[in-house]
């Protein structure tokens, strides 16, 4: 994306790399994450006003550890190193980094010891979040400390003349309450950014890009009812008008009333052609008897694509497929030290596309985060309810119904899920949690109802609070709400005699159960 200014974050594999980009964008400056070994021309094309070096799991002195590219050392741009980034700066400029006995993980208090634009408007003593086992023992020539912590003589350091700065702590995490101010200082006091980035700015550019990517012919957009695909559809429609047809697949794995609600809302609000494909039987037949979570996901992913291909052939051989892929999906599959990570689950639209797929994929949101997509959705006139809808996974209820899938079991789950969401909304708490749903377990247990014995199914209720769905905590829903949901489910849903609330965070659990 060509912006007139950007902050480029070099990724050394920190779990927080994405978060740095996000914080910079929140502060009004466009930012992208690039591999630490990206070449200079890739970075120059982004018009950088400054460079941030992320943290990382390695030790700078270890053999094979990722290093600073020569072009960074030769650059005149301001550079901010965070944790591993600071250690790299020191390592390359003649300072000394060593393993420390006083490792710091978590909360620490730092004291500002010298005036610096980086730490302007911040109390002299304040708490920060640390996560390191190595530390700087000697600063390079030209550098001086600007903050200390009990275990880090160089919690922050600077070469003001060159505009190189380093932090041993992580300003990007919420546990560093002044972290936003530190980043703001770097962007505006040091890099002199103008600060004109807004998610809605990207709309015009995205529209032009879609016109170039699909200059002629028919285009389909896979529409799910979620916010991502709706925003992608609106952008594509602005770009190519009537050449666009949206395809909504009723895979039989949707929630109660969802198929009707999605097509009705869509038709009420948009003048975009929509085809609803009733593929419920096809999906359920393919899933019959399948209990393995990964196998379910693969069957579903493949079916989706075959249906899109079939619909494309019926539409004058449409050659393009618009998808709502977001930036976190892209980063997950491309950044260093990430592609070696073990696979937890196959997301149906990422990495799961068949090799022989002929449709060319167009992904207008591939540079955005979810909150930015929501802002763009609002700017494009997407109804608020749609903008704030909880995400719903493409494999749908198949990954919330453990064990073999049948129409009857799906109906049980749909009913319980509808009750939970209805009560959550009635309590005014839908937007206080980021995702909430019911899960049907393959577990029967004994109960007593109306003096007779039951041996029936278990429903688990899950609600999470999260910023980015990468980590999550279970939502502290009020007991009164849980009590009401539990009693309604057992009373109203035939075949269920027990309801449990899932109190697992991610990690170690994931949000979905499969
Ligand atoms: N039932 C469906 N019919 C057609 N396309 C679908 C369906 N379910 C998922 N998709 C496609 O898969 C993509 C990824 O799904 P995903 O759930 O990540 O995004 P979303 O549904 O657009 O938004 P959200 O994350 O808010 O649910 C969607 O953008 C859409 O293109
Ligand atoms: O479109 C999707 N296709 C998938 O295959 C898929 N699997 C998980 N999810 C959603 O991703 C987020 C994180 O989920 P997990 O913690 O279960 O991995 C949560 O928001 C999940 O709902 C999916 N979305
Ligand atoms: N969070 C980090 O960047 C850690 C850097 C380095 N691996 C250390 O332990 O000190
Ligand atoms: Mg979805």
Write the layout of secondary structure elements.
Elements: E1 6-11, H1 17-26, E2 31-35, H2 40-44, E3 48-53, H3 70-74, E4 79-82, H4 84-92, E5 96-112, E6 125-138, E7 144-149, E8 152-159, E9 164-167, H5 179-190, H6 202-213, E10 219-222, H7 227-240, E11 244-250, H8 258-269, E12 273-278, H9 280-287, H10 293-314, E13 320-322, H11 327-334, E14 360-362, H12 370-379, H13 384-387, H14 407-426, E15 435-449, E16 452-465, E17 473-474, H15 479-492, E18 496-501
Parallel strand pairs: 1-2, 1-3, 3-4, 4-9, 10-11, 10-13, 11-12, 13-14, 16-18
Antiparallel strand pairs: 5-6, 5-7, 7-8, 8-9, 15-16, 16-17
Magnesium ion binds next to loops.
Mind explaining what this structure looks like?
The protein folds into three domains: 6-190, Class I glutamine amidotransferase (GATase) domain (Rossmann fold); 199-387, 3-Layer(aba) Sandwich (Rossmann fold); 400-501, GMP Synthetase, Chain A, domain 3 (2-Layer Sandwich), CATH 3.30.300.10. Helices cover 32% and strands 25% of the residues. The two termini are 35 Å apart. A nine-stranded mixed β-sheet has the order 2-1-3-4-9-8-7-5-6, with helices on both faces. A hairpin with a 2-residue loop joins strand 7 and strand 8. The longest helix has 22 residues, at 293-314. It is of the alpha/beta class and 514 residues long.
């Amino acid at each position: 994306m060509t912006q007139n200014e950007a902050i480029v974050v070099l990724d050394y594999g920190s779990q927080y790399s994405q978060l740095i980009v996000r914080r910079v964008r929140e502060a009004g400056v466009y930012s992208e994450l690039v591999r630490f070994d990206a070449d200079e021309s890739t970075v120059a094309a982004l018009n950088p006003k400054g460079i941030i070096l992320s943290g990382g799991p390695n030790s700078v002195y270890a053999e094979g550890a990722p290093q600073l590219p020569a072009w960074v050392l030769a650059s005149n741009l301001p550079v901010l190193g965070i944790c591993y980034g600071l250690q790299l700066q020191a390592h390359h400029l003649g300072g000394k980094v060593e393993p420390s006995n006083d490792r710091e993980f978590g909360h620490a208090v730092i004291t500002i010891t010298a005036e610096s634009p980086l730490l302007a408007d911040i109390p002299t003593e304040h708490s920060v979040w640390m996560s390191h086992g190595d530390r700087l023992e000697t600063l390079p020539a030209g550098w001086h400390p600007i903050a200390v912590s009990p275990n880090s003589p160089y919690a922050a350091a600077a070469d003001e003349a060159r505009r190189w700065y380093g932090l041993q702590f992580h300003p990007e995490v919420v546990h560093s309450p002044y972290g936003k101010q530190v980043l703001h200082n770097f962007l505006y006091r040091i890099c002199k950014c103008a600060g004109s980035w807004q998610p809605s700015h990207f709309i015009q550019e995205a529209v032009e890009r879609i016109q170039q990517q699909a200059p002629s012919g028919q285009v389909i957009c896979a529409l799910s009812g979620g916010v991502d695909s709706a925003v992608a559809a609106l952008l594509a429609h602005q770009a190519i008008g009537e050449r666009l047809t949206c395809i909504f697949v009723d895979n039989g794995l949707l929630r109660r009333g969802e198929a009707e609600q999605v097509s009705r809302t869509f038709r009420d609000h948009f003048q975009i052609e929509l085809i609803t494909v009733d593929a419920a039987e096809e999906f359920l037949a393919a899933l019959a008897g399948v209990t393995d979570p990964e196998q379910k996901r693969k069957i579903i992913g493949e079916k989706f694509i075959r249906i899109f291909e079939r619909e494309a052939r019926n539409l004058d051989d449409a050659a393009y497929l618009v998808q709502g892929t977001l930036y976190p999906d892209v980063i997950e599959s491309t950044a260093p030290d990430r592609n070696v990570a073990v696979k937890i689950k196959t997301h149906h639209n990422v990495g799961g596309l068949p090799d022989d797929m002929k449709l060319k994929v167009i992904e207008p949101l591939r540079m955005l985060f979810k909150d930015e997509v929501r802002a763009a959705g609002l700017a494009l006139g997407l109804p608020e309810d749609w903008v704030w809808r909880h995400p719903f996974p493409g494999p749908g209820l198949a990954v919330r119904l453990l064990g073999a899938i049948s129409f009857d079991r799906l109906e049980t789950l749909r009913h319980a899920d509808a009750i939970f969401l209805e009560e959550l909304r009635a309590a005014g708490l839908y937007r206080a949690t980021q995702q909430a749903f019911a899960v049907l377990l393959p577990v029967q247990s004994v109960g007593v109802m109306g003096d007779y014995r039951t041996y029936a199914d278990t429903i688990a209720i899950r609600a999470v609070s999260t910023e980015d769905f990468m980590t999550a905590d279970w939502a502290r829903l009020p007991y009164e709400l849980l009590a009401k949901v539990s009693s309604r489910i057992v009373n109203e849903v035939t075949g269920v005699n027990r309801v449990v609330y899932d109190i697992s965070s991610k990690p170690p659990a994931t949000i979905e159960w499969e």
